[in-house]
UniProtKB/TrEMBL annotation:
GO terms for molecular function: DNA binding. Keywords: DNA-binding, Nucleus, Transcription, Transcription regulation. Its main location: nucleus. This is TF-B3 domain-containing protein.
Amino acid sequence: MALSDVLPRFFSVFLSQYNSNSFLIPRSYYDHLPRRLPKTVILMGNGGKSWKVAMKSKRDQVYFEQGWANFVAENELRDGEVLTFVFDGHRCYEVSIYTRGGCKETRAAIEVEEISDETASDYSCDSIVSVIQV
């Protein structure tokens, strides 16, 4: 059995009415989380971008809160899409988005633009590779 097969995971259907500003983590999944929750986690999209999101506990329920709305907006989440979350056991969730048709999509992708050696002499080391959000 591969290590990735034993990492805690869950899925949920996105509904903007309930999930636009915060996201309730299913109670049955919460039992697999460490009892001392990290204050923030990193959501890693399959497009290479990441978001820092606060975890909050309210009335025995756990939510993704501050930062979640940015994740929703930048991934242009739509009603009926399925999100899968795979927790690395520490602070990181790998998040995949599936359309209503069942296909996995890449959203909020980052693209690295490489500059050829001929033009690189005109730039400092910090500007040779720039990251562009698509």
